[in-house]
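Example 3.2
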Amino acid sequence: MTDLPRRSLVDLLDPRGPRPRPVAHLVFGSVVLSYVLVRSLNALAEGRFVPAHFAYPDPVFLLMLGALVPVCALWPFTAWEPGAPAPRRAATVAFLVSCTVVMPLTAEFGLHGLVAVALALALCAFGLRGGLAMAVVFALLNTVLGLAGLAFGYALFNGALLLLYGLGVLTAVRALVGAARQAHRTRELLEELEQAHELLRAHAARDRERAIADERDRMAREMHDSTGHHLSAVHLCLVNAERAVAALPPDLPPDLLDGLREDVGQARRLTKETLADTRRWVRALKPVALTERSGAAALRSLTDSFGELGVATSFTSGGAWPEDLDAEAELVAFRCVQEALTNALRHSGASRVDVDVRTGARALELVVADDGRGPDDGAPGFGLTALRERLTALGGTLETGPRAGGGFELRARLPLTTNERARELEAA
């Protein structure tokens, strides 16, 4: 996670990185400024710059103090992770050596934090062995320097205290690094879980679409084989009845003959209209199968099939249809045209529908325009809402609404995703 609002406190305190982190800058700056402040106040109180209790000649103190210059200069170039470029590793080593020169000054309050910073840097840059080696070097140096003004036992005790201090710092830094790694791993697992959840949702949507398609096919077959067959039989009977009425003897009462002709004729017309409407529903529920044709040919066949139901249709296309287009993307493109044609036939009252398909370098654009009135309430129905969700899931867009000059228009844009690319996205 690179965005700050999503990072936890553990992430902010994690010292690892190609360069010092903001928290490390804060600690280092505080250490140096606090020592400068303490040394200045002590110098004013003692009336001399070199501390009175310093056991070595004054030039030695100035040499140690001067090592703060390379410490501050090298600080921005230190590397807080293994495998850093050679220049940064060299700057890190030089920084640790300079800290070793400055370390004797920790007898005066203010630079104990510099020891902690150096140990943390050695641990992050060179691993546990590097951190332990730095802690031992600090402890031995403190012991040797302590022999100048202390008894052997006291000097050894001071060295042991500094070693214990160093081990405590290393333990705390290792715990912090371990917590940061665990937090990072947990975040990765959550991201993988979210991706798996999205994949499951996509598979569930496909299964739901297949189930809906199967149910629509079943309903279409039942309407065609049952209702459509019965209506055809009734219509044929009524045609025969009209012929029978026309052949009745002319000596029958005129009112009776006229009434029979009108009733039978009206029944035949209503049956014919109902049969035509049933065929429209069958066509809307069960369009031309994608397995028979693919690409622009399937869309053209679908458009032509709706032209057989009393509405004028036209189909135009441009660009080369990708041969390896993802099956899900091709199905969504087919559903876009199907939904627009179905709405124009059933709801819009259109007399003409124009379908235009354009294949670009990166996206497929579908425009279906009619001369109807569109949805009665201006709000998209369930079909358009579900279609927009499927397009969004594939990175596409859907726009619907009135068009200039009257009529209704559906405009869809679908990124071109090949089967191989789709498999790569699912595997990722």
